[in-house]
Design a protein that fits this description.
alpha+beta; single chain; eight-stranded mixed β-sheet
Length: 378
């Protein structure tokens, strides 16, 4: 005898098909006797078979769900860094996940300068960096998750290996906003008046040069189409940075042209002056055309002047502490295929092209400065 539904051979006396579960009646194959009853029996058998198959499927699914649930329960939680207490509440952090999630500008930008410092050091404190003295020791000592186990000098020396890529990226992002706030604060303390003058002149479209006497005249001529930027650099390490106004362009080498230079002396903002030993005069206000200034990696100031017809001169200056005055150091000049150097600004000594290049290369131009839009100064 064979199953009506799937064709499986059935044993004598079988009540259900072992393959599909269909109920089996003894007279399923009796085609000649009682045809109506036979149809009814077949229909009933099919219904019972379907119900049995559905029951089998449900049992299988329930058992599988139980197995999956057991697997989930058996999984161990991710191991946290050894220096962080697992039960530390999230409100003890500024950014609880800064060790495993990239921060965004939207998250970082609203923070104050103080909060940014805590957020940046929080990343390293989580890794066990020890803080001795100052605000960070006080701040982190109050955190239940903090365990200072790594000497600060050793940690800092091994910074690249201590932090993962996400942590390093987050530190850099936070630093960007810290520097912006620090620059804005210092700029406001020493150079608010000059920045506001440039800011207003730019906002008015450089229409009234007489109204803004400290703004570079070239901006009222043909250089006013590009936005202007500012940066602060402490050239002499006296704790008071100097202000530089400039424009940026990929077409320029090293990517910027300085249009104004200002220092702080005797409680006032002053335009840079140049001291060549026997004379001292203000830097020409028309910077950025034939007369260009650059900041060097060694914090010297490089002045490149182009006299045309194959003549150029490069003078190197150093800033004197607590002044807005650049002091002459040395210079090199090129006149067609002839080269000279001078250490007093008066006597010129002939040199080879190689020596000329060697002097010039001593003062590599700083090209990684952070510039900020003057229009955004507050």
């Amino acid at each position: 005898m064979f199953c009506y539904q799937c064709g499986e051979e059935l044993k004598d006396g079988a009540k259900f098909c072992p393959k599909c579960g269909l109920a089996v009646e003894e007279d399923v194959q009796e085609e000649t006797a009682a045809p109506n009853k036979k149809k009814i029996k077949i229909a009933v058998g099919m219904i019972l078979g379907i119900m049995a198959a559905a029951a089998i499927v449900i049992v299988v699914l329930v058992n599988r769900a139980k197995d999956d649930n057991l697997d989930i329960k058996e999984k161990k939680p991710e191991t946290k860094k050894e220096n962080v207490k697992e039960d530390a509440p999230e409100d003890e952090y500024i950014f609880p996940d800064s060790d495993k999630e990239y921060l965004t500008d939207a998250q970082v930008a609203p923070l104050t300068e103080e909060e940014l410092g805590y957020a940046r050091n929080e990343i390293m404190a989580r890794l066990g960096r020890i803080y001795k003295g100052g605000q960070y020791e006080i701040y982190f000592s109050k955190k239940s998750w903090y365990k200072g186990t790594k000497d600060a000098d050793t940690f800092d020396a091994n910074y690249e290996n201590e932090l993962n890529d996400i942590e390093k990226a987050n530190v850099e992002l936070i630093l960007k906003y810290e520097r912006r706030l620090q620059t804005n604060r210092a700029a406001g303390e020493y150079y608010a008046s000059i920045l506001e003058e440039y800011q207003n002149a730019e906002a008015e479209g450089y229409r009234n040069m007489e109204k803004y006497p400290r703004v570079n005249p070239l901006l009222f001529d043909y250089m006013g189409e590009r936005p202007i930027y500012y940066t602060l650099v402490d050239l002499c390490g006296d704790g008071i940075p100097e202000l530089f106004i400039g424009q940026l362009s990929d077409e320029l080498d090293p990517g910027y042209v300085i249009l104004g230079m200002y220092g702080w002396s005797n409680g006032k903002t002053r335009t840079f002056s140049v001291n060549r030993g026997d004379t001292s005069e203000l830097v020409d206000s028309i910077l950025g055309e034939r007369d260009r200034y650059y900041i060097c990696e060694n914090l010297m100031v490089k002045n490149v002047g182009n006299g045309g017809a194959g003549y150029s001169g490069t003078v190197f200056y150093q800033m004197k502490e607590n002044t807005a005055e650049l002091y002459y150091v040395e210079e090199i000049t090129q006149d067609m295929d002839k080269y000279y150097k001078s250490s007093d600004g008066v006597t010129k000594q002939p040199v080879s092209k190689d020596e000329y290049d060697s002097i010039n290369n001593k003062y590599s131009v700083k090209d990684n400065m952070q510039w900020y839009r003057v229009a955004e100064f507050e």
